[in-house]
Amino acid sequence: MRPASLLLLACVVATGRLAAAAEPDDDLREPVKVRLTLNPTALDMDRLKASRMGYMPTSLKLVAARPAGVTKEPAYEGTPRYGIIRAGNGPKSDTLVAVDVREAGSRLYIDSNQNGDLTDDGTGEWDVIRDINGTNVEFATRPVRVSWGTPMEETESGDYRIFIFRRPGMDGFSYAKISGREGKVELGETPEADGKEYPLVLVEHTNDALFTVPAKGDLTRRMVELCVDLDGDGTFKGLLSKEGDKEFRSPERFNLADPFRIDGQWYIARPSISGAELTITPVDPPGSDVAALQKPVEVRPLLEPGVPAPAFTVETPEGKPLSLADFKGKVVILDFWATWCGPCLSSMPGLEKLYQKVKDQNVEVLSLNVYDDKDSFDEWIAANRGTKYNFTFAFDPAEKGSAESVAGQKYNVPGLPTLYLIDREGTVAAAFVGAQEARLIEALAKVGVEVKEDE
Fold it and tell me: For the whole model, what pTM was predicted?
């Protein structure tokens, strides 16, 4: 699985499709080993926003049974539910969690010091409660202990911080790490560059503090990314360049399942399981399919209101063709999203609520999954369509950078989620990056769709 205000951050798309790495030639220079340090807030929300990065949340389902390790608890006002957050592979990798579910909101207790006492790690109050799409969503950033080593011996530990959010009615909560491994590396002894030092951050997206790069086709773990600040601007939003009057953006984030290129040289990189050491090895150029994923992408603005919405054909969850023309005469809210995009998933409850208010006015929501793995899409659809969400879903099989990509090549989508509003004549009426409900409601009014306020 793959690479969002807090939940309104736009995810920068990053394909998670895996490809075999090329083997290094004997005549290339020796691998570079880099020591990395753990930064608990390397990927906090400010850094994510500046880098146009999103987060890939993990859902934790809570249960009624109290874990054996809990020795002392607060006086709950509602019904307690329990769970365990695991960070690392060492003997102290499990952190106990309790949520006091009340009629109005909840309280969150995390045993950060791992002493079994849920009363000495804070008051249980959430950091922020925000009204998002008519729902009070609870947010908090909390530390958990990360433990690396073996089940019997701890060789390394640290403070691993997680961003947590919860909506009313959830039987648990979702969380994503904001920690990462930081360091610097000198690369590029080629005619294009004479050795440059680049700041980097190593990121795992499974949210368990294990930096194991998944093998090709392994969907049990999400990708491990190497973020390299190539232009020295302190972000990883991409390296800008110009050719004539056109502007291009080269990636500064690399899925370590594939080779990556810096200053004309291709590399593969493999971290230790704790991420403390990264080995970077020069390799021959890979096949064209992998190389295409790292080509500079032309920076193009979102389509302007008034232009015809580009035609496309994608797949329904059942694998049948679905085209934009199938919605002729309807107002279409075209939602670009991915299963790995936390802000996309966070915005969907609001989109469903809006859809229920406008569907009788000949309005359709077409939620188009892009830059994603079909198995992940299928699994998500099986768990959510028809129960939580009732609008139309579809899948775009085209990879990022493909000429057939609806998001990248037809609608100039710069990040996820992105919404387009298409009027009854098939013309673009508005476009937004991020879940911007107020602006979408204003745009709907301009095409004759009334959104009634909640009573």
Answer: 0.81
Alpha carbon of 170 to those of 17, 63, 96, 181, 432: distances in Å?
Answer: 31, 12, 18, 32, 28
Contacts of 209 (CB under 8 A, 6+ apart): 87, 88, 93, 146, 148, 160, 177, 179, 274, 275
Please choose, from the candidates 226, 250, 276, 280, the residue with its C-alpha nearest in 3D space to the C-alpha of residue 88.
276
User: Which residues have CB under 8 Å from 327's CB, separation 6+?
Assistant: 364, 366, 422
Confidence class of residue 271 from pLDDT cuts 50, 70 and 90? Answer: very high
At 416, which amino acid appears?
L
pLDDT in tens, 179-192: 999 999 998 654 44
Q: What is the mean pLDDT of residues 26-53?
A: 87
Q: What is the mean pLDDT of the chain?
A: 89
CA 424 to chain centre: 32
CB 416 within 8 A of CB 344: yes
Q: How far apart are the first and last CA of the chain?
A: 39
Whose CA is closest to 186, among 34, 37, 301, 305? 34
Q: What is the DSSP string of 57-87?
A: -EEEE-BSSPPTT--B----SSEEEEEEEE-
pLDDT digits (tens, 9 = 90+) for 302-328: 999 999 999 999 999 999 999 999 999
Contact 395, 335 (CB under 8 A): no
Q: Which residues pair with 278 in a beta bridge?
A: 34, 271
- Can you tell me the distance from the alpha carbon of 285 to that of 303, in angstroms, rounded to the nearest whole number? 35
Starting at the earlier edge strand, list the strands of the sheet with 253-255. Answer: 37-39, 180-190, 193-204, 224-228, 253-255
Listed in order, the ranges of the chain carrying CATH 3.40.30.10 are 313-446
Chain center to CA of 190: 34
- Dist. CA 87–CA 146, nearest whole Å: 5
Residue 347: the pLDDT is: 86
**Residues 6 or more apart whose Cβ sits within 8 Å of residue 360:** none
**DSSP percent split of the chain into helix, strand, coil, nearest 5:** 15, 40, 45
Q: 3-state class of 269 per DSSP?
A: strand
Per CATH, the homologous superfamily of domain 313-446 is Glutaredoxin (3.40.30.10)
Confidence check: pLDDT of 122 > 80: yes
Is-contact 423 331, C-beta < 8 A? Answer: yes
Range in 292-301, 329-338, 435-444 with the lowest mean pLDDT: 292-301
User: Mind listing the pLDDT tens digit for each residue in 190-242?
Assistant: 444 456 899 999 999 999 999 999 987 787 899 999 999 999 999 999 999 98
**Which residues face 96 on adjacent strands?**
84
Quote the CA–CA distance of 136 and 170 in Å, as a whole number: 12
